From TrEMBL:
GO terms for cellular component: cytoplasm; membrane. It comes from Ephemerocybe angulata. Signal peptide: none annotated. GO terms for molecular function: lipid kinase activity; phosphotransferase activity, alcohol group as acceptor. GO terms for biological process: sphingosine biosynthetic process. Residues 116-257 form the DAGKc domain. This is DAGKc domain-containing protein. It comes from the Eukaryota.
């Protein structure tokens, strides 16, 4: 069947007016026939981008057709809105034709793009994340979108720290297609660490994870969905429905003989102080980070640490050009993310390559350092693009440090422009280690507090999996040459 040859007329249950539905390669069109009995013909057409169309379902016993889609977020609204239209198919078009058409539309929305339709989702809701709105966001916005898309939900409300970790550690892997968290970045950290502790960690870490922003940081949501829609929970739900698995580097953190995993950032000095010492200001949402930053500038305490880095690149122009080339390649290839694969690689976690006493080709920085911020994903918060040249799977961790003049380094933080500030040292590295030179200080890993003790970080290329509609981090950042 050529889908665009078929037009399906439906009488809506709710308003008794007729609709004509038409699917083409460009969009899904809904023509509303608003004619009043005996009055002049009055029609209105609107088009829905394929990306926003969730489901077309036909029930041949009742001849009922349901179309669900997201209406993009308006400027004054917090999120995109869900529309579900249901009505009875009109005319003498056969059930078989409508069924084949609806199935064809679904196949072109999902399987043709390498996306599983009607995913089986494990959803963790942290009722206490961020400003405590997790439950409301889930019930009012997220659950209706996921159900309208035909997803099968297992919902777990977390009751304590470690709940999600324990749950996924023993997960039956073939029962779940993706894991969603209605939370901040802290719960994502917990889920990834639970998957890494699974009896079959490599298979477990292939299950894609995706965030619904309901915490105070929400860095991952910003990076996967972009700054414009990163705080829109309906768009984040759409990413869970339509996103494709995107392989992402993860970082091993070895501290005191214990190994854990980080997916986003590690911070020491000013950046950790502003994250951890502002916990009591949680009610402020992400404004608390700005408050912490300003307070840090005033107090100006260098971090008492020695930093050693296994440097792979320290030329900022090369980093920006590499990013630019990779993004252009993704955009021009048309295929922006990997296909969903049913093949799972089993096996043990990758072994550590760098021993704590390995010093060959490590650069040691002993000068006073105001902060160390290491990680991946451009945004660490709405107001701070800390790693503008970060790539999800380049096998590198980005490290930014500064020895002073933090005020200049902060200006342009939202757009990543501070990256070019000469006093901000920026490296791409395979590994790094930190030795505290005092007992007092803060270490924050993915926004969670860790002991201020010696630790080493090593990159594991493509160990983690997130869901993404774009196959890359969504942030605008260009090399200097592109700006001229
Ligand atoms: N019911 C609960 N009570 C207390 N803590 C919980 C509960 N559920 C989850 N947690 C813990 O809360 C921590 C933070 O969770 P989450 O990431 O959702 O929010 P957040 O800290 O506000 O966000 P961010 O990490 O962006 O600052 C996690 O370590 C998680 O284990």
């Amino acid at each position: 069947m050529i889908l665009s040859d078929t037009r399906v007329a439906v009488r809506l249950d709710s308003s008794h007016h007729n609709l004509t539905l038409h699917y083409t390669e460009k969009a899904f069109y809904i023509l509303h026939d608003l004619r009043k009995a005996g009055g002049p013909r009055h029609t209105r057409t609107h088009d829905i981008l394929h990306h926003n169309l969730l489901r077309v379902a036909f029930d041949s016993t009742t001849r009922s057709l349901t179309v669900s889609y997201l209406k993009p977020k308006k400027k004054n609204k917090p999120h995109a809105s869900l529309v579900v239209l249901t009505g009875v198919v009109q005319g003498n078009v056969s059930n078989e034709v409508v069924s084949t058409w609806a199935e064809g539309v679904m196949k072109s929305l999902y399987e043709d793009h390498g996306v599983l339709r009607c995913r089986r989702l494990l959803v963790f809701v942290n009722p206490h994340g961020g400003v405590g709105k997790g439950e409301k966001i889930f019930e009012k916005v997220v659950e209706p979108v996921l159900l309208a898309a035909g997803c099968d939900l297992t919902v777990v409300r977390t009751t304590h720290h470690g709940h999600a970790f324990d749950y996924v550690k023993d997960l039956e892997l073939d029962k779940v297609d993706a894991i969603a968290t209605v939370s901040g970045d802290g719960l994502i950290h917990e889920v990834l660490n639970g998957l890494a502790q699974h009896a079959d960690p490599m298979s477990a870490l292939r299950i894609p994870v995706a965030p619904i922003p309901a915490g105070s940081g929400n860095g991952l949501a910003l990076n996967l969905i972009g700054i414009k829609h990163g705080f829109d929970s309906a768009s984040a739900a759409l990413n869970i429905v339509k996103g494709r698995p995107m392989k992402t580097d993860l970082f091993s953190i070895t501290q005191g003989g214990k190994r854990s995993f980080s997916f986003m950032s590690q911070s020491l000095g000013l950046m950790a102080d502003l994250d951890l010492d502002t916990e009591h200001l949680r009610w402020m949402g992400d404004t608390r980070f700005i408050y912490g930053m300003l307070r840090g500038i005033v107090t100006f305490n260098p971090a008492p640490i020695q930093l050693s880095i296994k440097v792979a690149e320290d030329n900022k122009d090369v980093m920006a050009e590499t990013l630019f080339t990779r993004v252009q390649e993704k955009l021009s290839s048309g295929k922006e993310a990997a296909e969903e694969s049913s093949v799972r690689e089993s096996g043990a976690l990758p072994t550590l390559k760098y021993l704590p006493d390995d010093n060959e080709d490590w650069t040691v920085i002993e000068d006073p350092i105001l902060f160390v911020y290491a990680g991946q994903g451009p945004y660490v918060g709405r107001d701070y693009m800390a790693f503008p040249v970060s790539l999800p799977d380049d096998g590198m961790i980005d490290i930014a440090t500064s020895r002073g003049e933090i005020v200049s380094a902060i200006s342009g933080a939202e757009t990543g422009e501070n990256f070019w500030f000469p006093k901000l040292q920026y490296y791409k590295a395979q590994a790094y280690r930190v030795k505290p030179l005092s007992t007092k200080g803060n270490l924050s890993i993915d926004g969670e507090r860790f002991p201020f003790e010696e630790f080493q970080v090593e990159v594991h290329p493509r160990l983690g999996t997130f869901l993404s509609c774009y196959g890359r981090y969504v942030a605008d950042f260009s090399p200097r040459t592109a700006k001229k």
